[in-house]
Write a structure and sequence with these properties.
The protein is built from 17 helices and 12 strands. With 509 residues, it is of the alpha+beta class.
Length: 509
Amino acid sequence: MYRYLEGEYTKLNVKTYRDKVYACWQGKNIGGTMGAPFEGVREKLKLTGFTTAAGKIIPNDDLDLQLAWLQAAEFEGCKKLTAEKLGEYWLSLVIPYWAEYGVAKMNMESGLYPSVSGDHANDWKHSNGAWIRTEIWATLAPACPDVALRYAMEDAKVDHGLGEGTYAAAFVAAIESAAFVISDVRKLIDIGLSKIPENSRMARTVRLILKAFDDGKTPDETRSMILEENSDIGDGWFQAPSNVGFVILGLLYGKGDFKKSMLYAINCGDDTDCTGATIGSIMGIIKGTAGIPEDWKNHIGDAIVTCSLDVTKGVRYPKSCTELTDRIVRLAPAMLIDNGVDVTFTELEQVLVGDQYEKFLGKTDPFVLWQDQPVVREVVNREPNSFSVDLYGVTAIVSYPDGADIKPGETKRIRLKFVNNLKSAGTGVKIVDVRLLTATEGATVNKDKFTVFVRSYSAPHPEWVSDPIDIEVTASEKFEEITEFVFELRIRGRYYRALAPVEFLNQDR
């Protein structure tokens, strides 16, 4: 079941790992249930514990959606999980049309690919829906924060595009993954910060909290500073920078105490089920089951109750934290192998290679090609309104530089660039032939057939990325809801063809 490798590999003791995974999900259930009755309350709270009856678990989409991603990982294989693939699971398994969930689903139903689905006409892209569902990626990729955040960002792009909600997901996923081998909260926060843009609102908010804590501000003073910092962002109580900020506040001021940390976070108000659930997850990973207070364990039990998944599709969702843990522990070795990382499992003593904290700091830029991974479908696109098309030897990145809506008779651009993702020696330049296969009647393009030369992957960045190519498209004077252009992409000398369907929505409707 587990691979044993010689050489410089971090080896995680499988019993310790399993215990931390279980504690993550039990902590998630505890915090979600404790915070749920106060979700959306903007005032400071004075909670001291559960207000719900013992044994009553309040269902929470924070956990629900991760059960859908577990299905995707089990059915598709970890390597194939991209925003485009996860979008299909959204449409198949996730019921709600709340906020950004609804925007993304309606965009996908209209024909827009992820991550365009998360960027286009989305006033909720800075909200909480993505960072609250990162534990699945962290538990499948323990001690691999770069891997965990890459999957978390692919997930987040579906409904948050490249908004602050996606940066929040990267930040939280990195912390949760690193927490399997690092227990120092301050170091974990440093790791999370090293993985997101310095000028993002998420990073600014976290740095503000760190300074307030170091300056001796009280939790209430720090809470007020967080709210003031983000008062200009929409979404009210539902936006990511402040709510992730409350999680960081809880971790810092709680000083390692599970109950204090969770209560500090929940009592900040706003999206209380999310902040409580994430505190519970992080503290669970750090401390394992022994670190969760017995009275809170007994109050919540082991069961998982869902509220936002379609249970009519015959999908086998875990019914308990125990079952969920077992399935993750079974799948995790495949995740590690698929990503070629220097982490594996052992039944012997745990072995950590090198200084894990230094190792995790700033080693990867997740917003460009995932250089240390074997396939380019793991590209995390820097551009908004973009999606990728896999040609195996090459990945095409398609973007809408002028947005994804269009008026009758209007001209806009499609932008194509290509990445050579064959890393082995001698792969050389790839020649990609592009041709317009079909278009909506009356719609036209200024380039319907052309060739692109994609430089070798082995060259230093950015040499393996082709120059961007802009195609001007003009909508017909009369069309209903959608103008579509379908391009065929083929690497010369290879048999595989891929289609890039580019759809514009009618701006006048």
